[in-house]
Specification:
Blueprint lengths: L2 E6 L5 H4 L9 H10 L4 E8 L6 E3 L2 E7 L4 H8 L8 H11 L3 E5 L16 E4 L4 H6 L7 H11 L7 H20 L3 E4 L2 H10 L4 E4 L6 H5 L12 E6 L8 H13 L4 E6 L6 H5 L8 E5 L3 H9 L3 E4 L8 H9 L3 E4 L4 H4 L7 E3 L4 H13 L1 H18 L2 H17 L1
Parallel strand pairs: 1-2, 1-5, 2-4, 5-6, 6-7, 7-8, 9-10, 9-12, 10-11, 12-13, 13-14
Antiparallel strand pairs: 3-4
Helix pairs in contact: 10-15, 13-16, 15-16
């Protein structure tokens, strides 16, 4: 059985061992961990603020890497003075585990720098890309507007979007080095395939789709709408300027002017979110901030919504869109990054220009005025998503990728 060492920013299924005490956002990686346990000898190194010894749970061995969180480290990161002090730990783990293959999940961390210290084959999975994300960071809100708010409200460098942007810029330099020296790349969209042709021209590219959380395979959206009902719109988003929150507010205001009765639910944001504070004056009663939802809560909210909207200015293959599609919710998505590889326009939903609230509001009206067609889109989206996110195919493909790398 092939021995594989994963490096990840999230703990995968280790959070279950601690009754979810370890917070994480990468639920798909947890699903992949569980899926691959019977197919490979799996070892996972992950970063955490907790001090935990290595442990085995189910069929995976976990190696927590404790990172210290402090104000001084944030300031050092902001000024690009923070040194990467964990490479020695990564190297020791590699020597101890002696894997056949090292799999780095994401380019947004320093994990990929281990190429300098090992001759073990390394494959890097593309999740997003900081070089492109920083380029699109202020697509929704201008630097001036963000600066004015945070200089007025808080210390200008820490815990605000300018800090996040500067930190991403610093990390993108590390990412560029990692990609430049990556021999093997795993991706899943035309977007990540083509950007790596530029950023990692010597790479061998493998396609491997993502497994979703288990509950999304087991549930199906089935909702009708008539003209006397309130339209329920759902978006799962994040606290960043490039996620398109301003487009939601602008489209919502256009719908209000037309006396449309609707509620727009946003998972992932609450009253304390930075983006909510910046545009708070524009948030009306028709916007319902749900905060962070667990898997079942998210599924139930999606199943009780008539339309799903993905408004980001840049994404690769957003899990939120994939999850809505596999349930069969009628979807509208900004045509950005890799979304054109995920949703086929006018077949599985509708793709629109990012940052265009008129097109977004108009497409919502199109769905409402012909809800039967919207349901057809949703059914086709579910068929496509069930094929794309087929667990057996994903696990077999990943095993083949590992075997090809080992045998090369």
């Amino acid at each position: 059985m092939t021995k594989v060492l994963w490096f990840s920013n999230t703990p995968a299924n280790a959070d279950e061992y601690f009754n979810n005490e370890i917070k994480q956002t990468g639920g798909w990686l947890k699903s992949l961990d569980l899926l691959m346990q019977d197919h490979i000898d799996l070892h996972i190194a992950f970063k955490t603020h907790l001090s935990i010894s290595p442990f085995e749970y189910k069929k995976t061995t976990y190696y927590p890497i404790t990172i210290k969180k402090s104000l001084s480290k944030k300031i050092l990161n902001f000024f690009n003075l923070q040194k990467y002090n964990y490479l020695d730990q990564y190297q020791k783990l590699i020597m101890e585990i002696n894997p056949d293959v090292i799999h780095i999940h994401g380019t947004e961390s320093d994990f990929g720098l281990i190429y300098k210290y090992t001759d073990k084959p390394i494959v890097v999975s593309i999740q997003g890309n900081l070089t492109v994300y920083t380029h699109k960071f202020f697509s929704g809100l201008s630097k001036n507007k963000i600066n004015k708010y945070f200089i007025r409200k808080s210390f200008p460098f820490i815990d605000n979007f300018m800090f996040t942007f500067r930190n991403m810029k610093n990390e993108s330099k590390i990412e560029s080095e990692i990609l430049k020296n990556s021999k093997y790349i795993i991706g899943r969209t035309d977007w990540d395939k083509n950007i790596t042709k530029v950023l990692s021209p010597q790479n061998t590219y493998f396609h491997n789709d993502e497994v979703l959380r288990d509950g999304f395979y087991k549930n199906v959206w089935d909702l009708d709408w008539d003209k006397n009902q309130k339209i329920i719109i759902h978006t799962t988003t994040g606290d960043s300027p490039y996620k398109g929150f301003e487009t939601i507010l602008q489209a919502a205001n256009l719908l209000l002017k037309l006396n449309i009765d609707f509620e727009w639910r946003l998972a992932g944001l609450n009253e304390k979110s930075l983006i909510t504070k910046v545009v708070k004056s524009n948030v009306g009663n028709y916007i319902k901030l749900l905060g962070n939802l667990n898997e079942n809560e998210l599924i139930q909210n999606l199943k009780s919504s008539h339309i799903y909207v993905m408004p980001s200015h840049i994404e690769n293959s957003p899990n939120s869109l994939c999850e809505a599609m596999i349930l069969g919710v009628p979807c509208i998505s900004a045509h950005v990054g890799g979304t054109g590889s995920i949703l086929k326009n006018k077949k599985e939903g509708v793709l629109i220009q990012d940052g265009d609230p008129w097109m977004l509001a108009g497409t919502i009206l199109e769905f409402v005025q012909n809800f039967e067609q919207a349901k057809v889109y949703g059914k086709q989206a579910r068929k496509t998503a069930l094929i794309r996110h087929n667990k057996e195919k994903i696990s077999n493909d990943l095993k083949l990728i590992y075997n090809k790398i080992v045998n090369e």
